[in-house]
Write a structure and sequence with these properties.
heterodimer, A: alpha/beta, Rossmann fold, 23 helices, elongated, B: 611 residues, ABC transporter transmembrane region fold, four-stranded antiparallel β-sheet
Chain lengths: 631, 611
């Protein structure tokens, strides 16, 4: 297979080379991997998440210190055993006692390492999930205009990748306490065992330190390059998988293969370079270890010969030397983890700091279910960007039980009206009243319970049909759900699904057609049984057969409710009690079908163009209709 | 419109039996040795490095003993000093050599892995690109990505983490054991007593961690889905004031994941502590028994030191036994999935020596075409479909959902092969010509327009990456996209797709129409690809494309009658058959199903509502 691949690759290259316009995947990876090493502000923010577990952290640090102390003690005990327990003529009880001391040391070591790893591992997991929960909870409250601007994918990488690197950081930061203690402990113990020999042995340390100082920036660059090319290659593979139908339809396989080859080849190159950098430290550390041991043997050995030094001390030195490069190695690795964590922490705090614009007033009232169900706009001015209002001084009232159709060309402000009723945004001027109360004086939760909303693009959740239909009213009975589905005409196709109401919907209802999803979202609104229904009629993509079902369901849905419908279909519009025509954010006409037809303004013109939906009207015809002076 | 998704086959490969596992590992090993120099160097260096590593404790012991010469009655002085110096130099030399060979071992075993990864990635990519639509229909894209990323990684890591490590461990443990036992059998046994326990514990732990890891990934993916849906459907969540409900869903998913994560910490920690403890117990025993022997003069302090250092050296590799076992397990399951993908037959490919399609008149003909999706072979989606379209003609295809309209469109470029009958272009059966020539002559504008993460111009030129600017602009003008693009900050250089500017449904569809126009195809198929474009724009598009339409066959599949009323012929499909056929006027006059649909769409009267 590999030979065949080579042949194919060479063919492709020999034939035509790389086309100028062809790319696969993306060229760059998105985000900074490393940030500042130490950012007090971010540390403080992270600490806030760790603080609830601080008792555990203190215990963990204590355990780390105990553990490190035992690491230091073990060679000393061995030394004592050699020098005092085994010497010919030594007290025969010394050795067993020393062994007992050893046993105690390793028991403490066992307990401390168990405690430390258990606590650190557990707290790191807890903090990870806490941060994620805090972010998720925050995102549930931030303004929709912020959410609209932000891609879900980007948020997900915050909630996953960035949160994970915080976890890594927490685990290593406790361990680095141990490493630093161990390093200093070894230095202190060696110097106090024998100052001169200690000093001599430790002379290898600065060498390693300097070498690593030179090595680190270059090595890190190579690791980053490897990381980057890897993400790029993986991104290109993912693109090929998602876009395979377009690739085959456009016959791009051969070109893509060449381009992908470039990317994987670059990835191979950077990884080989990174491997060189990673491995080059091995002989250096080994040689320095060897050098330090050789020094101990020559200098220390000579002094043992002269009986100026106990042989046990020399053995202890040899043991320490085998350990003392480890902390330096892991400390430099932790340096990178820190940097990565700071970059992630920066991004996490950005999300956590997004202000929540729309909050319940401190004295917010609960909108009770016996309110009258009226909706009123009083001189409303609103714009996503306050300088460019989308709604300009709009006033209208929908009486309880009335159905009002909002009509107007794209960008006339229909959807904004809908969002304001639900207080997705706050008005800049004027008031929106529901049941006679300014929406800003009501609790959002109670407001949401009295308004059912059907969006143009029905969004269903993974789960069963029944779970989706009783999304808001989780206590609705099965009968309620079936009744609602029957009312909107969804029962039949639901029963045709393999498990009826318990059938699991694919991701976002992917196994249903758009029309079917729309019907389920109708049933969902019906079960919510709110006083007010706000509905954005679906336009495109629905075949005429399902369309008919939907029209019928709509009539049922509106029975006994106040309805505000962003209407596209003439059938819906004509049925409405009142029609409000918006243009460029201004209310230009209002009345029922007959009245508006008599008016002979925009509505009657549009209607007389004979399209079944206002959306079907060609732009130029529409422009003509709108620009003609009203008679 | 796609066929029902059957359970993905690749994801279902369960832990393979021993025989299968072995054959997979053999296959990876053979692939690794396709780089014979590097693989042999890696293994050779491993042997040398471990041999030198084993000399270190002996040298240390020797050095310690040399210092004891006075005590054991030898002559102190220059001779002893010289011995110390020689030993020190040998030690230094051994350390340097060991370091260098370890470098060679690590570097080349990684290099073999990276080369292997390189080849596998290419093979995987090529396979995925070439596998036919029916495969992709049946496969969840997330599962394919898992194979291409994680499984491939498991196979790639096999050489360094399983094979080379195995050699290293066998040499170190084997030779170490020999040296220890041959020096002093009792002390040797004591020193090695921790090996079986630690090896066993670490293997069991690693396998358990792997199993729980898979389970954890499963639970985390549920959590991911909850978060993704909640954020993606934030408007619904807010509309129903369901934030608390979403938080509860999150907490449930999060709780189940965090519990398992804690459990995993427990498994890991219990075992690492136990392993360290057993190692130290063994060391304590060696110290005790050895110390007694030293006191009795049966052993030198140097030998005891070399025993203790041996143990320190053995500790790490023995702990890694578990990692090695895990690497073998991982490579065999990952390999099973990866190779299953790589070994798949490509259902739709060129016949041997297939000629290129030669388009002369450009006549497309369906002859008694029957089709069933491979996943549901007993259920015909199309049957007895016959029609002919000549150059310059436009054929409209309409019908209720599930009538087979889109399927028909997908058969022309051979996204699927017909089950019966044939499709020909100028008399050449499309199954007998090369896929490349066919797909360059047939362009399908698909329902879901995929955007690649690159500039708009590169997206338009996707099928013709050598295209000149002027061509791109012309196609874009015809597709009524040009003016929109000019309004963008970087015009045609604006990056779109997953990480770029997002386009609306209608804009995406226009872009994919422009993309198809670039191919200047002999047959152009619109698979319900104007649904999100408003009728006016569609009309202008139709006028703009009229001049090209004369030189090709155009097939329009649509729900909206205004998209296809003007067609030269309209086929009304129902249950996979053509039930009515004729011009708009003829079909209206016929008063059948088309007429009913027309009435429904163009003037939905009160009767339709109350029906």
């Amino acid at each position: 297979m590999a030979e065949q691949l080579d042949a194919e690759r060479d063919d492709a290259r020999g034939e035509e080379g790389r086309p100028p316009r062809a790319v696969v995947g993306s060229h760059r990876i998105e985000e900074e991997i490393f940030g500042k090493v130490f950012d007090t502000n971010i540390i403080r923010r992270i600490w806030a998440f760790v603080a609830p577990y601080r008792t555990k952290i203190y215990w963990a640090v204590a355990a780390v210190l105990a553990f490190t102390a035992m690491q230091l003690a073990i060679p000393l005990i061995i030394r004592y055993a050699i020098d005092h327990g085994m010497r010919p003529g030594a007290d025969p009880s010394t050795l067993p006692w020393t062994i007992l001391a050893f046993l105690v040391a390793i028991l403490i070591n066992f307990g401390a390492s168990y405690l430390q790893e258990m606590l650190v591992g557990g707290v790191a997991e807890d903090v990870l999930f806490d941060i994620r929960r805090a972010m998720f909870g925050h995102l549930q409250r931030v303004s929709l205009s912020w959410m609209d601007k932000t891609e879900v994918g980007r948020l997900m990488s915050r909630l996953q990748g960035d949160v994970n690197s915080m976890q890594e950081f927490l685990e290593t930061s406790v361990l680095s306490v141990g490493d630093i203690t161990l390093l200093f402990g070894i230095i202190v113990v060696m110097l106090s065992l024998d100052f001169k020999l200690g000093l001599l042995t430790l002379s290898a340390l600065p060498v390693l330190f300097v070498v690593r100082l030179f090595w680190l920036p270059r090595a890190r660059k190579s690791f980053m390059a490897a990381h980057e090319t890897n993400s790029i290659a993986n991104g290109a593979l993912a693109e090929a998988i998602h876009g395979v139908r377009a690739v085959q339809g456009m016959d791009r396989q051969a070109v893509n293969f060449m381009l992908f080859d470039d990317k994987v080849r670059a990835n191979l190159r950077t990884h080989l370079t990174a491997a060189k950098y990673a491995q080059v430290m091995v002989p250096i550390v080994d040689s320095l270890t060897g050098l330090a041991m050789a020094l101990v043997i020559v200098v220390g050995g000579a002094r043992v010969l002269n009986q100026a030094l106990d042989v046990g001390v020399m053995v202890a030195f040899l043991f320490y030397i085998q350990r003392f490069f480890d902390p330096i190695r892991s400390l430099t690795l932790q340096y990178s983890v820190m940097q990565r964590a700071m970059a992630s922490g920066q991004r996490l705090t950005e999300v956590l700091d997004v202000p929540i614009d729309i909050k319940d007033a401190p004295d917010a009232k609960v909108l009770s279910s016996d309110m009258d169900g009226s909706v009123e706009f009083r001189d409303v001015v609103f714009g996503y960007n306050p300088k460019h209002p989308v709604l300009k001084h709009v006033s209208f009232k929908v009486n309880p039980g009335e159905t009002v159709a909002l009509v107007g060309p794209t960008g006339s402000g229909k959807s904004s009206c809908m969002s304001l009723i639900h207080r997705f945004y706050d008005v800049q001027q004027g008031q929106v009243l529901v049941g006679g109360h300014d929406v800003r004086s009501l609790s959002q939760d109670s407001l949401g319970r009295q308004i059912a909303m059907v969006l143009q693009e029905p969004f269903l959740f993974t789960g069963t049909v029944i779970e989706n239909i009783r999304y808001q009213k989780t206590d609705a009975t099965r009968d309620d759900v079936v009744q609602a589905a029957k009312t909107v005409g969804a029962h039949d196709f639901i029963m045709r699904m393999p498990d009826g109401y318990d059938s699991v919907l694919g991701q976002r209802g992917g196994n249903l057609s758009l029309g079917q999803r729309q019907l389920i979202s109708f049933a969902r609104a019906l079960v919510a049984d709110a006083k007010i229904l706000v509905l954005d009629e679906a336009t495109a993509n629905i075949d005429s057969y399902t369309e008919m079902l939907i029209q019928k369901a709509l009539v049922k849905l509106l029975e006994g409710r106040t309805g505000l419908v962003i209407a596209h279909r003439l059938a819906t519009i004509r049925e409405a009690d009142r029609i409000i025509v918006l243009q460029n954010g201004e209310l230009i006409e209002s009345g029922n079908h007959r009245e508006l037809m008599k008016n002979e303004k925009l509505y009657s013109k549009l209607y007389n163009l004979n399209y079944s939906s206002f959306d079907d009207i060609p732009e130029d015809v529409l422009d003509d209709a709108m620009t003609q002076p009203a008679t | 419109m796609r066929a029902a998704k059957p359970a993905a086959s690749l994801a279902l490969v369960k832990a393979a039996g021993w025989g299968k596992g072995l054959s997979i590992l053999t296959r990876i090993t053979v692939m690794a040795f396709r780089h014979p120099w590097q693989a042999s160097l890696a293994i050779g260096a491993t042997l040398v490095a471990s041999a030198f590593q084993l000399t270190i404790p002996r040298l240390l012991g020797h050095a310690v003993d040399s210092t004891q010469i006075v005590l054991s009655g030898g002559a102190a002085g220059q001779a002893a000093q010289d011995t110390l110096l020689t030993t020190a130099l040998l030690l230094l030399g051994a350390s340097v050599v060991r370091g260098l060979f370890t470098l060679v071992q690590n570097y080349f075993s990684e290099a073999v892995g990276h080369h292997l990864g390189y080849r596998l990635r290419l093979a995987c990519y090529e396979k995925i690109q070439r596998l036919s639509f029916s495969f992709h229909d049946s496969m969840h894209s997330g599962d394919l990505i898992t194979v291409g990323l994680l499984d491939l990684e498991g196979v790639r890591m096999y050489f360094s983490t399983a094979l080379v490590r195995m050699v290293l461990l066998f040499v170190l443990i084997g030779m170490g054991a020999y040296l220890l036992l041959s020096t002093d059998i009792v002390l040797g046994l004591l020193a090695l007593s921790f090996v079986p326990f630690v090896g066993w514990r670490s293997s069991v732990t690693q396998l358990r961690l792997r199993a729980t890891w898979l389970e954890l990934q499963e639970r985390l993916s549920v959590l991911t889905r909850v978060m993704e849906e909640s954020l993606g459907g934030i408007r619904v969540v807010r509309a129903f004031a369901a934030q608390d409900h979403e938080m509860a869903k999150f907490d449930k998913a999060s709780q189940s994941a965090v519990e398992l994560a804690h459990q995993r910490v427990g498994i890991r920690v219990a075992n690492t502590s136990a392993m360290t403890f057993s190692f130290f117990v063994a060391m304590g025993l060696v110290l005790w028994v050895g110390g007694t022997k030293v006191m009795a003069g049966e052993m030198t302090v140097g030998t005891l030191t070399s025993f203790l250092t041996f143990m320190t050296i053995l500790q790490m590799p023995v702990r890694q036994l578990g990692l090695m076992v895990n690497a073998f397990a991982r490579a065999s399951t990952c390999g099973a999935r990866l190779f299953e993908l790589l070994d798949l037959d490509i259902a739709i490919k060129d016949e041997a020596n297939a000629p290129d399609l030669k388009v002369a008149d450009g006549t497309l003909r369906f002859e008694n075409v029957r089709f069933a999706y491979p996943a549901a072979a007993q259920q015909d989606v199309l049957s007895g479909v016959s029609f002919e379209a000549r150059r310059g003609e436009t054929i409209g295809i309409v019908g209720p959902p599930g009538s087979g309209k889109s399927t028909l469109a997908h058969l022309i470029p051979r996204f699927y092969d017909v089950t019966g009958g044939s499709i020909t272009i100028d008399g050449q059966d499309i199954r007998r010509v090369t896929l490349q020539s066919l797909r360059r002559s047939v362009a399908v504008v698909q329902q879901d327009s995929f955007l690649f993460t690159t500039t708009i111009e590169n997206n338009i030129a996707y099928g013709d990456p050598w295209a000149k600017d002027a061509h791109i602009e012309r196609a874009s003008e015809s597709a009524q996209l040009h003016n929109y693009v000019l309004g963008l900050p970087s015009g045609y250089g604006t990056v779109v797709g997953e990480r770029g500017v997002s386009l609306s449904g209608g804009q995406r569809q226009r872009l994919s129409i422009a993309r198809a126009l670039m191919l200047r195809p002999a047959v152009m198929v619109f698979d319900d690809s104007t649904a999100a474009i408003d009728a006016g724009t569609e009309q202008r598009m139709r006028i703009a494309m009229r001049r090209y339409a004369a030189s090709r066959v155009t097939i329009i599949v649509a729900h909206r009658l205004s998209s296809l009323m003007h067609a030269d012929r309209i086929l009304f499909m129902e249950d996979g058959r053509i039930v009515e056929s004729g011009t708009h006027a003829e079909l209206l006059a016929l008063g059948g199903r088309y007429r009913a649909l027309y009435d429904l769409q163009l003037r939905p009267g009160d009767d339709a509502l109350s029906a």
